[in-house]
């Protein structure tokens, strides 16, 4: 089970089980890959998709799917500030992706056996990936943290969540067609400031994305950037996400 297989199940649920001839979808983080795949494979069944994180569908493809750098080093000549920003970004995500892809089963048994270990694993990500400045409860209320962690614990879901990464690399994405852009359904996208690339301000974010190789993957009809928030977009800046969802789909009715 990986993100493109989840997309197949999602589409089957929406069309065969719930009986919708067309529908809309939205996603963030791993859900952005699921949603992007829906917009790629099932374009004719969707009004459009909304992404709170614009990930290329070949993110886990290639010889180094565990490496968020893709084997690249920081190029010489960049300013010290940008160099620090690039290294900090890599440090933030490198261990997470590498362990989940390369050693998810071993890690999962340890986290399944220890509620303290599982909570520490989750909190480390919530603390470092969000715009918390080290105070995770400034972003996620304690009741939210404990409720979310309890759901993971009692359903034994940490293993399946980690396995999704391993399976994304083990069964790499392959295109369903060769049309351009690959995600042909109309796409709306939100960018939040804590995940701005080093050297790119929020005011520059939309233009920087439009000029990047990633932009060629999406039939973008709405792009918007906000200063507040980080990796967990719907939790950190729900007002911006809800507003951008409405603005994306209002024009696609």
Structure notes:
The chain is of the alpha/beta class. It folds into 2 domains: 3-58 and 175-250, Alpha/Beta hydrolase fold, catalytic domain (Rossmann fold), CATH 3.40.50; 80-170, no CATH class. It is built from 10 helices and 4 strands. A 4-stranded parallel sheet has the order 1-2-3-4. α8 (202-210) links the parallel β3 and β4. α3 crosses α7. The longest helix has 23 residues, at 80-102.
Computed over alpha carbons, the radius of gyration is 18 Å
The share of residues in helices is 40-55%
Number of strands: 4
* CATH architectural grouping of the largest domain: 3-Layer(aba) Sandwich
Q: Helix tally?
A: 10
What is the CATH domain class of the largest domain?
Answer: Alpha Beta
List the helices and strands and how they pair.
Layout: H1 3-17, E1 23-27, H2 30-41, E2 46-51, H3 80-102, H4 104-113, H5 115-129, H6 142-154, H7 158-170, E3 183-192, H8 202-210, E4 218-226, H9 233-236, H10 238-250
Parallel strand pairs: 1-2, 2-3, 3-4
Helix pairs in contact: 1-2, 3-7, 4-5, 4-7
Write a short abstract of this structure:
It contains ten helices and four strands; from the N terminus they run H-E-H-E-H-H-H-H-H-E-H-E-H-H. The chain is α/β, with parallel strands linked by helices and 253 residues long. It has two domains: 132 residues, 3-Layer(aba) Sandwich (Rossmann fold); 91 residues, no CATH class.
